[in-house]
Design a protein that fits this description.
Layout: H1 11-21, H2 30-41, H3 46-56, H4 60-69, E1 81-86, H5 89-93, H6 96-107, E2 120-125, E3 137-139, E4 142-144, H7 152-172
Parallel strand pairs: 1-2
Antiparallel strand pairs: 1-3, 3-4
Helix pairs in contact: 2-3, 3-4
Bound molecules: FE2/S2 (inorganic) cluster.
The site of FE2/S2 (inorganic) cluster has 11 residues, from helix 5.
Length: about 170
């Protein structure tokens, strides 16, 4: 699987921007616009930020500043499986940093990166609200509790098996 990096903004997003431009301070809708772009493409590419800036009539540097200020905006493509290791206090005390190291070693990527095949992204987060399960790892919407560094290869293998069986299913169709 390869990651596509250049795609046009969708008609829905362009329409939303047009609506914003009819309002009194179009630039105040920047965050809402960026949310829509990230929701559609999974991250904010340089091209998209340029285009949003152009369409809203504001400097790209301003758009980039907002995108980098808020941690929920991503500036790089995300993998199909987003692995988020909780580094909140309870998880950290229970060894989340070692779990994170194990993911880095197994995947051969650093925090904030995506594997070359576009399957896994690695990130961290603060308290997910399930401290009783510390240390906690979230893979897309699935929560893994009391994760040890030794379990990391097993978690990744389970996901890879899932991907393989999906591919087999597709072959049969
Ligand atoms: S600190 Fe990790 S879930 Fe609360």
């Amino acid at each position: 699987m390869t990651i596509e990096t250049k795609k046009e903004l969708t008609p829905e997003i362009l329409e939303f921007i047009e609506t914003c431009k009819t309002r009194e301070h179009p630039d105040s809708y920047l965050i809402a616009v960026l949310h829509k772009v990230q929701g559609e493409f999974g991250y904010l590419s340089r091209d998209h930020m340029d285009e949003v800036a152009h369409l809203l009539g504001i400097p790209t540097a301003y758009v980039f500043g907002v995108a980098t200020f808020y941690h929920f905006f991503r500036l790089k493509p995300q993998g199909r499986y987003s692995i988020s290791v909780c580094l909140g206090t309870a998880c950290f005390v229970k060894g989340a940093d070692r779990v994170l190291e194990s993911f880095k070693n197994e995947l051969g990527i650093e925090m904030g990166e995506t594997t070359k095949d576009g399957v896994f992204s690695l990130t961290n987060t603060r308290c997910l609200g399930v401290c009783g399960l510390a240390p906690v790892v979230m893979v897309n919407d699935k929560v893994y509790g009391q994760v040890t560094p030794q379990q990391v290869p097993e978690i990744l293998n389970r996901i890879r098996t899932e991907i393989d069986s999906e591919a087999d299913q597709t072959d049969l169709e």
